[in-house]
Sequence to fold (880 residues):
Amino acid sequence: MSLIEKKALTKIQAIIIALIIIVAVIAGAAYYLFMTGPEEAPLEEEMELNVAWVSEVTTVDPHTGWSTDSLMVVRGCYERLVRLKGSTMQLEGVLAEDWEVSADGLEYTFDLREGVKFADGTPFNATAVKVSFERLIGIGQQSHNFVAVKDVEAIGPYTVKFTLEYPFAPFLNALATMQASITNPKALETHKTADDPWAMDWFHDWTNGTGPYRMKEWRKGEGWTLVRNPYYWRGWEGKHITKINMEIVVEPATNRMMMEKGDVDISFWMPKEDIPELQLNPNLKIVEYPALSTLYLAFNNEKPPLDDVHVRKAISYAFDYTQALAVILYHGKQSRGCMPSALWGWSNETFQYTKNMTAAREELAQSAYPDGGFTLSYLYCGGVEEERKLGMLLQSCLSELNIDVAIEVQPWATLTATTTNPETARHIVALFDFVFAPDPHFTVNDRFHSSRIPPGGYNWDYYNNTEVDQLLEQATLEQDKETRASMYHQVDQILVEEAAALFVYEESKIVTMGAWTHGFTPNPALVETFNFYDMYVVEEEKP
Amino acid sequence: MGIQRFFAKRLMWIVFVLAGLAVITFFVSFMVPADPARYFAGPHATNEQVEALKRRYGLDRPPHEQFVNYIIRLFHGDLGMALHTRRPVIEDLKIRFPATLELALISIVIATLVGVFVGVVSAVKKDTLIDNVMRVFALGGVALPGFFLALVFQFVFYARLGIFPSGGRIDPHVQLQRITGLNLIDSAITLNWPAFVSSFYYLILPSTCLAYIALSTIARMTRSSMLEVLSQDYMKTAKAKGLANFKVIYKHALRNALIPTSTVIGLTFGNILGGSVLIELIFRWPGVGTYLAQSMITLDFPAIMGTTLLIAAIYVIVNLFVDIGYSIIDPRISVEK
Fold:
């Protein structure tokens, strides 16, 4: 009997539960239908751009970010006094309409554009420039291109004067880098705290610049959305992207599927092996363009046997560049000197090593190690497949000279620590060098001036040459671009003559976009970022 | 009384385990000659800039001092600053962990229901065609690498059929107010029906994928323990008593067979909660797994340590609940032991 009672009770319970569920579902549906009302209608037709990116954005603060994920957002949301024109290395005014450099090269006076507003409607003026540079230098994390700046003065509402400690010719070019972005002083005033005088917490997540876009939503770990700045001074007439959705797509296969389906409009991160196949797809456009990035094997010029110039030259002659390009690196070309060819100062007159075993043996014979018989340590960054393969290629090339290569891998943070400590630095370290400043100073000085030998800088070649130092110093004092270019060329020739490093390859970037995506202009100094405002998509052309 | 004492004792152990782990992870981070500050300042930064970053994050102090500071901050619930996101680790985990939890819960429910069912049917229909089919099905989950399955799912259901999104947690165009971080619950609380539907829709592919991998172990474990139980004498008694076949299997046999299975379920759940890196990466799920992977690549020790502590805590807690679960399934097992 009890069994039956129990069952009956269960039935009643079941009915009650079922009723509750039905009521809940109906209530939910009714709420959805009647209560939510019409969606807030957008003011006008949005034109959206969907971007796939390979990693999370580190920060959107222009004064602390340096990796391309940050720079991509900074380029869209902020503006600088000057910028690079189209695909060139020529400067043009943006927030500055005009500028003047004093004869001694110590004072730079800028006439600013009037009528420009920040993303919250605050007017832009000379004080904003002053405060932005105070912030950049005050934080001190990414101010290395501006160490020469002594003072920034607002000498009129729309006139600003920079005074330098010493003449520094690369200054104007440095102003085109993303770190020179102008931030809204009102946002700084609102969000700063006693512990955080530069409002770093707020600027880490949000933007407030004069650029065409502002950060609307950052879904951490997933992506972000930029929306248009309604106050943008160039206006919103004509065809412009008004909203940008970025999604983090780590897996290349997924990236490719999304691109082929039209869910992603543009991406830098297609696997290189897939490019030939993707080129056959009529719905996609693949654009290859030069970049200011090079791959080189840094020789430790202080560490025997690499302190012997003949050993370095022997290695430079023994390395098989053709093979490296054909099998390992695919796109781009062999380096000629330490600079990429897209940078002014580069010259096709610089000598270029090619594989020549006779020359290699001759050089080795002149060295202190005529029969080889030593081992070189080769260090590369974990996860960079090209560098691993280059190590193996170097190993096989040098075996012909009876030189052994011990390949070693470390994650980047460890590699940095190992290499900047003279005690632990290896013989050779493989490096990808990206330069975002359109001036040879920032490439060459950083890597080859003796003052930049670790721990003081990025001279991981431990290269020390007084003549090079002097030329590099003169080149910052000289205002004439042509003269400066010839000085960097001279430096380049010395570096190649001394085989200061093994200059392997200059990269070309590949961007894949849907045939429906238009208006992208690549610039070698602004790799992996976009000129969103000039871009537009045509929905009808999507597959 | 018994269960309370047991609980208190186990909680004490958890504290010990976590403290030990904090010590180990902290000192491992000093064995590796890494220079995170230089990494985050960028290659072209000057020495002063690197030093400034070190001071800001306290990396310039001697190890023992850093350790003491670390432990003090741990007691305040502060796991330090993640260098690769430049945000507090705890803030990052508050976003990442609910995402993983939501995925793990749905997956483990699917895996348990399907896995136990497959296991029982396999055992009851031992050596028939059904059994063999189910065993092959279950074996697939063990044999196939998760990332491969995920890619195949994505290719078929997204690229070819176009019925599911390629990944992510929710349609970026749908607004959702964040309360608990579990999208399904947040959207239910705020009566946000579109967000609920979208979240559910985005969950299907990754959770099915994870569930398939997890259910194979569960099904195999259920099958073997069911077979063992079914051969016991009391099964014959139950049948002889005239009980319905269904009742014999699900009430008498399954209950006894569930003990080893529940251990497996618990461990699997802990595993998924720790973040399944590849599945999360492929389906762009912003969970703990992707976070940990990113932290490891950049040798971001505060983030690695924080995440390790979280995962360890999860494992220990899940195991505690599994132990308690035994006593519910089989009252003869006393938690006191």
